[in-house]
Design brief:
0% of the residues lie in helices and 50% in strands. The protein contains no helices and 11 strands. The strands form 2 sheets. Strands 2, 4, 5, 6, 9, 10 and 11 form a 7-stranded mixed beta sheet that branches.
Length: 115
C-alpha cells in the first residue's frame, strides 16, 4: 500500500520558517519524481516545487523561488520542503505528491502564516 505522510506544518509568523517532511512507503521512492502542491483557501491547487528521482534537479514556482528549498533523502524515503521568509499568502494545505503524473498524494499538512 502506497503511503505519503506529511508532517511539520503549523502556525508561524510572517518572515518565519518551517520545514515540511513527507515519509513515503509502498513504492520505490528513488525512482519517482516528487513534488509539493499546495491548496490555498478558495483557490485551485498550485504546484510549488519538484525534485527528480535522482535528487539532482529541482524546480520551483516563481512565487516561492529563492525562499523554498526542496530536497530528498532516498535512503530514508523522505521528501522535504524548507520554507523560509514565509508570507501570509503561503498559508495553505501542503501536499506531498509522488510521480510525474501526480500518481500518489498525501493527506496534507496545514501551514498558516499569520501574526
Amino acid at each position: 500500500e502506497v503511503q505519503l505522510v506529511e508532517s511539520g506544518g503549523g502556525l508561524v509568523q510572517p518572515g518565519g520558517s518551517l520545514r515540511l517532511s513527507c515519509a513515503a512507503s509502498g513504492f520505490t521512492f528513488v525512482n519517482y519524481d516528487m513534488s509539493w502542491v499546495r491548496e490555498r483557501p478558495g483557490k485551485e491547487p498550485e504546484w510549488v516545487s519538484k525534485i527528480k528521482g535522482g535528487g539532482g534537479t529541482t524546480y520551483y514556482a516563481d512565487s516561492v523561488k529563492g525562499r523554498f528549498t526542496i530536497s530528498r533523502d532516498n535512503a530514508k524515503n523522505t521528501l522535504y520542503l524548507q520554507m523560509n521568509s514565509l508570507k501570509p499568502e503561503d498559508t495553505a494545505v501542503y501536499y506531498c505528491v509522488g510521480g510525474s503524473l501526480y500518481d500518489y498524494w498525501g493527506q496534507g499538512t496545514q501551514v498558516t502564516v499569520s501574526s
